């Protein structure tokens, strides 16, 4: 195999010339993987490119449920503890912040292994209705955060059912 076959080359769509992709070979590889996944899966909202992801990044899954009287937000935070999570509500935006820390040490005979992983996250969710901040509740059990936000009387009164005709 020739050395030229190992070097990442990029073909310019506008011309027939071929030139070497400048920059870090790992970023070039990352872009090619992104292109491969985009071609295969399509470019859908919420997909983070490999180039934009930082090592150890963690983004929890969230579910939002709205009823006539309240908004419920559930976030999956596996491996986290209550003390590592912060929930705030500012001007109609619910923010959930946290930091995930994992440390593992193992010693077997002459072998010692130590692993550490850290990752911080923050999710901000604009709320679809006014809520009563004083009555909001947050509960954390077994790695799942549940935030219940009762809607204000004004928000409940603004709801109007529209009949569906067939």
Question: What does this 3D model show about the protein?
Answer:
The chain is mainly β. It has two domains: 20-53, no CATH class; 62-157, Immunoglobulin-like. It is built from two helices and nine strands; from the N terminus they run E-E-H-E-E-E-E-E-E-E-H. The strands form three sheets. A four-stranded antiparallel β-sheet has the order 3-4-9-8, with no helix packed on it. The protein has a three-stranded antiparallel β-sheet with strand order 5-6-7, with no helix packed on it. It is flat, with a radius of gyration of 24 Å. The chain starts with 8 loop residues before the first strand and ends in a 9-residue tail after the last helix.
- Please report the total strand number as a whole number: 9
CATH third-level topology of the largest domain = Immunoglobulin-like
Proportion of residues in helical segments: 10-25%
End-to-end Cα distance: 68 Å
Name the CATH class of the largest domain: Mainly Beta
The parts where pLDDT drops under 50 for at least 5 residues are: 10-21, 43-47, 49-56
Number of domains: 2
| Number of helical segments with 4 or more residues | 2
Radius of gyration: 24 Å
Helix-strand topology string: EEHEEEEEEEH
CATH-scheme architecture of the largest domain:
Sandwich
Beta-strand content bin: 35-45%
Physical arrangement of strands within the biggest beta sheet: 3-4-9-8
Which overall shape is indicated by the principal axes computed on the Cα atoms? flat
Q: Structural class of the helix and strand makeup?
A: mainly beta
The profile of the biggest β sheet is: 4 strands, antiparallel
Mean pLDDT: 77
């Amino acid at each position: 195999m020739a050395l030229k076959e190992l070097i990442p080359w990029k073909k310019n769509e506008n011309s027939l010339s071929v030139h070497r992709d400048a920059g870090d070979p790992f970023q070039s590889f990352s872009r090619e993987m992104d292109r491969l996944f985009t071609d295969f899966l399509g470019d859908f909202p919420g997909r983070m490119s490999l180039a934009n992801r930082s090592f150890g990044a963690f983004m929890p899954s969230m579910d939002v449920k709205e009823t006539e009287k309240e908004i419920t937000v559930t976030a999956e935070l596996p491996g986290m503890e209550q003390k590592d999570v912060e929930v705030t509500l500012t001007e109609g935006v619910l923010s959930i912040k946290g930091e995930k820390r994992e440390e593992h040490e193992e010693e077997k005979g002459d072998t010692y292994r130590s692993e550490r992983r850290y990752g911080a996250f923050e999710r901000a969710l604009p709320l679809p209705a006014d809520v009563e901040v004083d009555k909001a509740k947050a509960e954390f059990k077994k790695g799942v955060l549940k935030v219940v936000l009762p809607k204000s009387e004004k928000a409940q009164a603004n709801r109007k059912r529209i009949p569906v005709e067939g």
